[in-house]
Write a structure and sequence with these properties.
Blueprint lengths: L4 E6 L8 H13 L2 E7 L1 H9 L8 E5 L10 H7 L4 H10 L5 E4 L3 H12 L9 E7 L4 E5 L9 H19 L5 E5 L10 H12 L3 E6 L11 E3 L2 H27 L2 H21 L6 E5 L5 E4 L5 H17 L1 H11 L1 H36 L1
Parallel strand pairs: 1-2, 1-4, 2-3, 4-11, 6-9, 7-8, 7-9
Antiparallel strand pairs: 5-6, 5-10, 10-11
Helix pairs in contact: 1-10, 3-5, 4-5, 6-7, 6-11, 8-9
């Protein structure tokens, strides 16, 4: 019997929720062989859903009485509220009532809910956000895109293995090139975390290209870019801002002269293709990598098209069983993680020895003083 993919969607999450989420869900079930479970306030959702032209059995409503607002502290909100829509979508995945879940709401709350409800894959200390971005002629995986703002070398190594899996099963690249984001291509460039990560990745069996700079991210040099979440989120938001600024400036230049408006008639098809390629709404959402289940976060400003595409990418991840693929990749790095663990142990023992030497010197000095 054919299994229909079930996707739990946070109907209350996002700047334009629930209207945009409901409209996007209706568009999604019209294009995909899936069932959408809308989670949120039933009294608000049901009247809006009745206005959509879609089969009733393809969209199910599950009630949740509380919402985590975009401006709320994720930890405080989730501690105070036990029946939030963003928590319930992960609970449906955990219970097997949904194959995957998606939210355009508070991304911090989504990550914490996923951690609390689903837990992490074996061998993963911290989940991360994996975003797929357009490049000059293809796509690139960027991670972490904002989940962790203070990562250690072994976290970045785990991100690299998870990014390798994501690129293999979403971009269709057998042996993806891995790049480490730094302030220079040379191995010695970057802060201590980047330099330590470089040494570990260099010894791994990944197809490690080496360091890449910010300008290389969109240049088709590597397939996966690994970085700390603080840096990754700045890269992501800067990219969005540049595209938006270019679009605004281009419109102004076109309207500024008769020649510009005339030329636009000929350029319109190319400009539409450009917009479609670099518009965040076309790329759906980012995967919460490292969770023991599939969770996707979409842009907070998602309109119905963006919601539809976020559901589509969630559907694709569920069909390809990406969480299982990532788990396999992380487990394959056990030897690497073990060697890193041994190195950490050596460092700790070295620190202990140094401290013992200092204690002995202090003791001798004290005896001489007496």
């Amino acid at each position: 019997m054919k299994h229909t993919v079930k996707i739990a969607v946070d109907a209350m999450g996002g700047d334009y929720a629930p209207q945009a989420v409901i409209e996007g869900a209706a568009l999604a079930v019209g294009e995909l062989d899936c069932t959408v479970i809308l989670v949120g306030d039933r009294e608000v959702i049901s009247p809006l859903l009745q206005k959509q032209s879609c089969p009733e059995e393809r969209i199910i409503v599950k009630h949740a009485s509380e919402v985590v607002r975009m401006d709320e502290s994720p930890r405080k909100a989730l501690n105070a509220k036990q029946d939030t829509s963003i928590r319930k979508i992960f609970e449906l995945v955990k219970a097997g009532e949904a194959d995957a879940c998606m939210s355009a709401g508070n991304s911090g709350a989504a990550m914490l809910s996923g951690l609390h409800v689903l837990g992490t894959l074996p061998g993963v200390d911290r989940p991360c956000i994996g975003s797929i971005l357009p490049t000059v002629s293809g796509r690139v995986v960027l991670l972490d895109a904002g989940a962790n703002v203070d990562s250690k070398p072994h976290n970045l190594v785990q991100f690299a293995f998870m990014g390798h899996a994501l690129a293999r099963y979403t971009l269709g690249i057998d042996r993806p090139k891995i790049g480490l984001l730094s302030i220079g291509e040379e191995p010695g460039k970057g802060n201590e975390v980047v330099r330590s990560t470089y040494k570990i990745l260099k010894k791994s069996d990944l197809n490690f290209h080496g360091n890449v700079e910010g300008g290389d991210i969109f240049a088709d040099i590597v397939d996966v870019v690994v970085c700390d979440g603080f840096v990754g989120n700045v890269v992501l938001k800067t990219g969005e801002g540049v595209v938006q600024a270019l679009g605004t400036r281009l419109k102004a230049e076109i309207k500024a002269s008769l020649l510009g408006r005339f030329g636009y008639l000929f350029m319109r098809p190319a400009l539409k293709r450009f917009k479609k390629r670099f518009d965040y709404a076309e790329y759906g959402g980012a995967l919460l990598l490292g969770l023991d289940g599939i969770g996707v976060i979409a842009h907070g400003r998602s309109n119905p098209t963006a919601v539809k595409n976020a559901i589509r990418i969630t559907y694709d991840y569920a069909k390809t069983r990406v969480a299982m693929r990532v788990k396999e990749e992380v487990e394959s790095s056990a030897e690497l993680r073990q060697s890193f663990g041994e190195r950490v142990h050596q460092v700790i023992e070295h620190i202990k020895e140094k401290k013992l030497e200092m204690d002995l010197k202090d003791s001798v000095s004290a005896d001489k003083g007496d």
